[in-house]
Model the fold of this input.
Amino acid sequence: MEKKGELVSYRPDIKVVDCTIRDGGLINDFYFTDEFVKNLYEADVAAGVDYIEFGYKASKEIFDVNSFGKWKFCNEEDIRAIVGENNTDTKISVMADVGRCDFRKDIGPKSESVIDMIRVATYINTIPAAVEMVNYCSDMGYETTLNIMAISTATMEDINIALSLIAESKADTVYVSDSYGALYPEQIRGLVDKYLKVGETFGKKVGIHAHDNQRLAYANTIEACSVGASLLDATMMGMGRGAGNCRLELLLGFLRNPKYNLNPVYSFLEKDMLPLSKEHVWGPDVQYAITGQQNQHPRTAIAFTNEGRTDYKTFYQQILDRD
Done:
């Protein structure tokens, strides 16, 4: 397959999305302090990061507002308290899950919001509902992405059907999301190439969101980039659910765009991420490698971690018995 750029070249179409608050919020139920979020925003702006994702637009009818921090819901006033009018080059993103967001109620016109991009997350079996959501958000004036989660569990037939539906949607970008951290670079290459063929026909970009169960999130992101993916997700120090994500500091150091500046990132890691990492646990430990290798949701590995278990052999057999 044709590569869109050599790994040492600079591609102006590449955009980096910092998902620290959104994916990292799954670690601490979105209870980040305002100081932390403000510092992250300022670090991203200074570093030249293209998008910062603040969290979810979750329905308050489904989720108890007293059980989560504010970034589970991303009220307009809460975002504005951090970014003001956001007169910067860094854009604001939020995610909306199919079935977990009352989008017609909670997402108003772009003209009334500081948010720039809505990312609609869906599983393969809810693509029609995702298309309805993404079309609504596009009509409201937002940039949009459609993120197919747990793509490693889908058949090629289902992926082809999903892409045919997405092709006719108003999504600007379609994402390869390795939610279980189960995929290898060769598989990522094939999927991104498949997505790109649809995207190039219907005017859509391709994004990559990788999890680090097998310590391949960075490698898989680079592979997707080399094939032609444009939107690249990452988090500070890899903070994210379970094994975490592609590390933003590694990704910015790899990309050849001269606008990216690592000094603000390393300052943020030192002053804000290190203290947080002592309060919460994430990263590609053995239990996450096991679920990644078996292409299973990391919920069992998360429970293993929370219980303080270290009986890896027993856990491995338990995971095998689930198949």
